[in-house]
């Protein structure tokens, strides 16, 4: 049974052709929201993804492959949303990349790319979404930060800087929209078994001679007391809640969903 809670609303989820973004897009579609997907991937597979979302949930779907490191492409994507869907009501800034190296070894071009995609892209989508939201006096901006927006880990300076910045940007945006029907919050996941994290698991398994399951357990044991991965579906449920009337006064909050990581 598809809910109609968000029927008539349009959600743009960046980085939504797989992983967390796709999980959130599915959860919003299940509540009746039209979905604009964004991300890289095989064109045929993405078209199939659009069709399956539309068929399963009875919503309109769109896709724009904007490179989130390029402001001109982001602007074109937001224009596409306005032309085809009338604007973005729910903006989920999820696109992100990672690189691990100590500061003195960190390639400057990787730093620039991580800041651009993980932080600056959210500024561009938000500034372009706000006029439509203000005209309707309703909007939900959800920034996918990370536990690394709240605490740090060695070797991840660019990612930690970007995610801390995204939490700060969330607070500033929430204050600027505090007297409107627009809210802005951040979700800060711990380990989620996305393709990005699976690569880290694979690398660890190979390096330490572990099975994939043992490598997953070792990864979780270091940081996440629950010993379980957070799922895209759980993050999607949180996004749906933040879009609800019950979350109307939740503004500028960084919600960690991390199996106890930050509580330590």
UniProtKB/TrEMBL annotation:
Q: Which PANTHER family match?
A: 3-OXOACYL-(ACYL-CARRIER-PROTEIN) REDUCTASE, 3-OXOACYL-[ACYL-CARRIER-PROTEIN] REDUCTASE FABG
Species this protein is from? Massilia eburnea
Q: What is this protein called?
A: 3-hydroxybutyrate dehydrogenase
The catalytic activity of this protein is classed by the Enzyme Commission as 1.1.1.30
Q: Which GO terms describe its biological process?
A: monocarboxylic acid metabolic process
Keyword Transmembrane helix recorded: no
Q: Which UniProt keywords apply?
A: Oxidoreductase
Organismal lineage? Bacteria, Pseudomonadati, Pseudomonadota, Betaproteobacteria, Burkholderiales
Gene Ontology molecular-function annotations: 3-hydroxybutyrate dehydrogenase activity
């Amino acid at each position: 049974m598809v809910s109609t809670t968000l029927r008539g609303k349009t959600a743009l989820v960046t980085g939504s052709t797989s992983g967390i973004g796709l999980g959130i897009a599915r959860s919003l579609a299940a509540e009746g929201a039209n979905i604009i997907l964004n991300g890289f991937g095989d064109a045929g597979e993405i078209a199939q993804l659009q069709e399956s979302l539309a068929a399963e949930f009875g919503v309109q779907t769109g896709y724009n492959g904007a490179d989130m490191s390029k402001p001109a492409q982001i602007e074109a994507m937001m224009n596409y949303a306005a032309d085809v869907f009338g604007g973005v009501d729910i903006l989920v800034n999820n696109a992100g990349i990672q690189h691990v190296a100590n500061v003195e070894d960190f390639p400057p071009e990787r730093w620039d790319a991580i800041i651009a995609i993980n932080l600056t892209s959210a500024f561009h989508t938000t500034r372009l979404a706000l006029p439509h939201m203000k005209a309707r006096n309703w909007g939900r901006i959800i920034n996918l930060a990370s536990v690394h927006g709240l605490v740090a880990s060695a070797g991840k300076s660019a990612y930690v800087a970007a995610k801390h910045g995204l939490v700060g940007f969330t607070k500033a945006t929430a204050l600027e929209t505090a007297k409107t029907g627009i809210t802005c919050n951040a979700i800060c996941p711990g380990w989620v078994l996305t393709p990005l994290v699976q690569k880290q698991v694979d690398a660890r398994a190979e390096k330490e001679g572990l099975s994939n399951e043992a490598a997953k357990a070792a990864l979780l044991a270091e940081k996440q007391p629950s010993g379980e991965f957070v799922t895209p579906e759980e993050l999607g449920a949180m996004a749906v809640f933040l879009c609800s009337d019950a979350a109307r006064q939740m503004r500028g909050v960084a919600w960690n969903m991390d199996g106890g990581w930050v509580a330590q």
